[in-house]
Amino acid sequence: MQSIRQCVKHLALYGRSAINRTNILSNATNLAPACSFHISAICKGKLSNYEAPTGFLDYNKTIFPPQKPGEERRPAYVCHMKANIKYSPKKMWYIAGFVRGMSVDEAVKQLSFLHKKGAIIAKEVILEAQRLAVEEHNVEFKSNLWVAESFATKGIVIKGLRRHAFGRKGTIHYRYCHYFVRLEEGPPPKHYYLPYPKTGEDLLNDWLKEAHQRKVPNSL
């Protein structure tokens, strides 16, 4: 009972953040044999017990055949990821799409001015991938890389209980996500996303043309 009171006291002092609660309560499993009603869902397991996706990192082990004389040089690339991030996958999706198609230096610079938790995580993963490209994949210049792929997927979801008034209870979800990035050697393309073939004025003229050609049924 004393250990449970200690855990709740530290929890109240530490703050209301979900990630702080997860860190404290995951360490509290060794103190208390049985968890209380409020923290039972988090105390049941650790993140290390959940398997992380490793198929994306297998692309680093791909062996390509020798290139023929005169063939265009195949650019080097490196794949990197971070699994089980305590962050919403929907929020991480916007940050992942934000840096897609940028050079490494530009992506790191833009993420440094983005005041979001996911931006800090994406910046760390990109810098780690940049270091791996130089040390393990024979990339000569670390700035000669661009973000070819950047996406986030859904991770584990831990369900917990939240006490409501009049003896009722509710479900609370602690969501995690995985972040993947692939850096490719060379300068970034001018248009990562294909530009729309028509301008705004062309679209307006097409709309006016369709509006003039409309036929009102049962009219003169």
Automatic annotation (TrEMBL):
Keyword Lipid biosynthesis appears in the UniProt entry: no
GO CC, one annotated term: mitochondrial large ribosomal subunit
Domain of life: Eukaryota
Gene Ontology terms, MF aspect: structural constituent of ribosome
Keywords per UniProt: Mitochondrion, Ribonucleoprotein, Ribosomal protein, Transit peptide
Transit peptide among keywords: yes
GO biological process: translation
UniProt cross-references to CDD domains, sorted A to Z: Ribosomal_L22 (cd00336)
Cellular localisation: Mitochondrion
Family matches, as InterPro entries: Ribosomal_uL22, Ribosomal_uL22_bac/org-type, Ribosomal_uL22_sf
Subunit structure: Component of the mitochondrial ribosome large subunit (39S) which comprises a 16S rRNA and about 50 distinct proteins.
Recorded family membership: Belongs to the universal ribosomal protein uL22 family.
Entry-linked PANTHER family: CHLOROPLAST 50S RIBOSOMAL PROTEIN L22-RELATED, LARGE RIBOSOMAL SUBUNIT PROTEIN UL22M
Protein name: Large ribosomal subunit protein uL22m
Organism: Temnothorax curvispinosus
